[in-house]
């Protein structure tokens, strides 16, 4: 067995065109060199040094747009072809996706920038009571299907007050109302919207209490109409509803909100709901409809269909990519394991065992697709949706309703048990994820297939490029498992008192205090950034690497920079681009500069005169710990 494996890999090695291996590394190094802005020193503003010329040399906003564009080109080609037309595995799914695409690219009717009020009021045939069925969320109440905090294998319905971002949609509704003639309704809608905002402002709390209730308990506590749930779940059976678990926050708000609604005139209420539905469609349709924008739209709204097609007909390197990605993950896990040996946070044996078990269990998934392989599953998954090849807006409503139906489906199976074989991420995004993401409840990192394209990743690249870019991204995602929110979830994704104990311990709190010293948008993102880069660096160079002691310059494809310098530059490519504000993360230049500024080796790697002012390290063993180990091995 061992012998034949060896033979195989030799044969493969013989047939790999060597030129290609050299080329991809030369190309990557060239790309990095083209982005350099040498007017800045790497020591004063590293982002500008590494990325400063990106926007003047690239036609893309950033490298994400570049790989998304490659994905879209390939999918446009597929859609325009006859591939899969007589497919034996999932012909219906493929036909549905083509119909949706055809209507999206050929039907020119659109809502955006062109409000047609007669349509809003008369032709918009949705019954206002059905708004939840059509994916309209955040009107009066925010409803999500998620898993229970203490049981990651059980679906629950979470209810809370709408998110403040829903106010953009309300503002658009009020704009539409100004164009609308029936003054009486309009006044009613304005009054309703103002009242809701007022109630939300009054009751919004930093960390609201979450109540776990059965259906009857919920109905006792909050005057939500029974019809709300009948419409939502398509069942009219209290017994069935009583199997559901609700996690409810903002209870005072919900109580007062539904009391108010009960007594409010129904015409303006219905007009408001119709208008919000209209705004939802307007916000969901692509701004400009063309082949590429339709592909991007479909990635977000029909993820299973798009990923299935890409995976089967376009994606070439699943096997090679998977083995490289798993290898990177295992070196990251090994480095984190060494951190735990040093136990900088002085965890108790029980706490250490908790963190080790969690580390061990982190899974990785290439592409947001379920484990299930049967053609029946894929072919029927969108079976309840009726897409036409001629009416895009009707299709969009179908897609929104389909997404909601699929989200709710798990609630009605026995005990609302999560079916892991069929699980994939299907949430209410408007833009599909391209970057890897971590889910606490699944203890899983998903790497979208979009991401696994050059210049972000190529399986033929030298490991220094892979470990610095994808490695640091995976390091970031892994560290979400161990930041102040993620640490609460155990290896199986259930909230655990041991996690809480760790979070409350003094060394953990001190580590967080350090990271808080520099301004941030989101603390957990900051922690994941700092710890992720440190972990990726240590995983590649070994713990306590010191470039003052020897020079590491081993590469034929890179003459100018040493290995650690190249590592930092390649890492920064993830963040290169023009600089609009990024939601939920800090701006890219800050992210890069703060991350390298907290990696104690960075200053040595670039021979910076002043050592950086801040070295926030959390899990990583301190410098003293390492030097002690060197003296007394
Ligand atoms: C990052 O850039 C900021 C200016 O935008 C600068 O103040 C900071 O020193 C830089 N840090 C590093 C490590 O490059
Ligand atoms: C390089 O950075 C400097 C500021 O440090 C900036 O003024 C200049 O425009 C940048 N060069 C390019 C080509 O973007
Ligand atoms: C699919 O089948 C139809 C009818 O038999 C045929 O006309 C068509 O060429 C086939 N398409 C492909 C791509 O083979
Ligand atoms: C989860 O929490 C709820 C409410 O606190 C409780 O009723 C239930 O028994 C818990 N389930 C588990 C598996 O611990
Ligand atoms: C639900 O069932 C009740 C009694 O069985 C009935 O009165 C009511 O009309 C039903 N509601 C809907 C929306 O089907
Ligand atoms: C599907 O939609 C078309 C028009 O878009 C309609 O004529 C047809 O009846 C619908 N079929 C089903 C099963 O709803
Ligand atoms: Zn993150």
TrEMBL record:
Keyword DNA damage: no
Highest rank taxon of the organism: Eukaryota
Residue segments, region Disordered: 612-633
InterPro entries: MetalloPept_cat_dom_sf, Peptidase_M13, Peptidase_M13_C, Peptidase_M13_dom_2
The Peptidase M13 C-terminal domain, residue ranges: 437-610
Keywords from the named record: Signal
Signal peptide coordinates: 1-20
BP terms from Gene Ontology: protein processing
Pfam families, per the entry: Peptidase_M13
SUPFAM superfamilies named in the record: Metalloproteases ('zincins'), catalytic domain (SSF55486)
PROSITE patterns in the record: NEPRILYSIN
The name this protein goes by in its record: GM21396
């Amino acid at each position: 067995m061992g012998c034949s494996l060896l033979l195989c890999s030799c044969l493969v090695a013989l047939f790999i065109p060597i030129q290609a291996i050299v080329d991809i590394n030369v190309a990557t190094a060239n790309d990095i060199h083209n982005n350099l802005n040498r007017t800045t020193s790497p020591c004063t503003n590293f982002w500008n040094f590494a990325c400063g010329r990106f926007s003047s040399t690239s036609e893309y906003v950033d490298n994400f747009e570049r790989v998304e564009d490659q994905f879209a080109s390939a999918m446009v080609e597929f859609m325009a072809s006859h591939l899969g037309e007589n497919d034996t595995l999932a012909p219906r799914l493929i036909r549905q996706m083509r119909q949706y695409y055809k209507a999206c690219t050929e039907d020119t009717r659109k809502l955006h920038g062109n409000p047609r009020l007669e349509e809003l009021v008369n032709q918009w045939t949705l019954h206002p009571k059905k708004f939840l069925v059509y994916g309209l969320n955040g009107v009066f109440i925010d409803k999500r299907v998620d898993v229970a905090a203490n049981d990651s294998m059980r679906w629950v319905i979470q209810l809370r007050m709408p998110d403040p971002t829903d106010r953009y949609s309300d503002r658009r509704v009020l704009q539409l109302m100004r164009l609308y003639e029936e003054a009486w309704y309009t006044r009613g809608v304005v009054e309703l919207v103002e009242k809701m905002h007022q109630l939300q402002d009054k009751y919004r709390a930093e960390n609201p209490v979450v109540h776990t209730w059965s259906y009857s308990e919920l109905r006792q506590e909050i005057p939500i109409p029974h019809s709300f749930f009948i419409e939502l779940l398509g069942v009219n059976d209290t017994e069935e509803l009583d199997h559901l678990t609700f996690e409810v926050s903002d209870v005072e708000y919900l109580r007062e909100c539904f009391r108010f609604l009960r007594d409010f005139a129904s015409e303006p209420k219905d007009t408001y709901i119709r208008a919000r539905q209209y705004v939802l469609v307007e916000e969901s349709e692509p701004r400009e409809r063309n082949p590429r924008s339709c592909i991007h739209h479909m990635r977000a709204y029909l993820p299973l269909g798009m990923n299935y097609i890409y995976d089967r007909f376009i994606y070439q390197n699943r096997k090679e990519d998977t083995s490289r990605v798993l290898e990177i993950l295992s070196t990251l896990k090994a480095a984190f394991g060494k951190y735990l040996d040093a136990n900088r946070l002085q965890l108790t044996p029980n706490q250490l065992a908790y963190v080790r078990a969690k580390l061990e269990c982190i899974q990785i998934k290439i592409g947001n697709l379920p484990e299930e392989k049967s053609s029946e599953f894929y072919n029927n998954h969108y079976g309840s949706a009726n897409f036409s090849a001629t009416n895009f807006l009707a299709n969009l409503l179908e897609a929104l309703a389909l997404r909601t139906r699929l989200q709710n489906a798990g609630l009605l199976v026995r005990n609302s048990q999560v079916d892991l074989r069929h699980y994939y991420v299907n949430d209410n995004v408007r833009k599909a994820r391209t970057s890897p993401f971590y889910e606490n409840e699944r203890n899983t990192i998903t790497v979208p297939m979009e991401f696994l394209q050059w210049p972000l990743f190529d399986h033929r690249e030298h490991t220094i490029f892979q470990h610095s870019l994808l490695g640091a991204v995976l390091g970031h995602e892994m560290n979400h498992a161990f930041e102040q929110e993620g640490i609460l979830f155990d290896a199986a994704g259930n909230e655990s008192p041991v996690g809480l104990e760790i979070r409350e311990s003094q060394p953990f709190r001190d580590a967080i205090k350090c990271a808080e010293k520099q301004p941030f948008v989101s603390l957990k993102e900051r922690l994941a950034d700092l710890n992720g880069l440190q972990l990726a660096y240590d995983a590649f160079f070994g713990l306590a690497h010191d470039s003052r002691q020897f020079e590491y310059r081993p590469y034929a494809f890179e003459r100018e920079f040493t290995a650690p310098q190249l590592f930092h530059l390649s890492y920064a490519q993830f963040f290169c681009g023009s600089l609009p504000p990024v939601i939920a993360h800090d701006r890219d230049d800050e992210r890069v500069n703060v991350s390298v500024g907290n990696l104690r080796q960075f200053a040595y790697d670039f021979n910076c005169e002043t050592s950086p002012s801040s070295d926030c390290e959390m899990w990583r063993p301190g410098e003293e710990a390492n030097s002690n180990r060197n003296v007394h091995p």
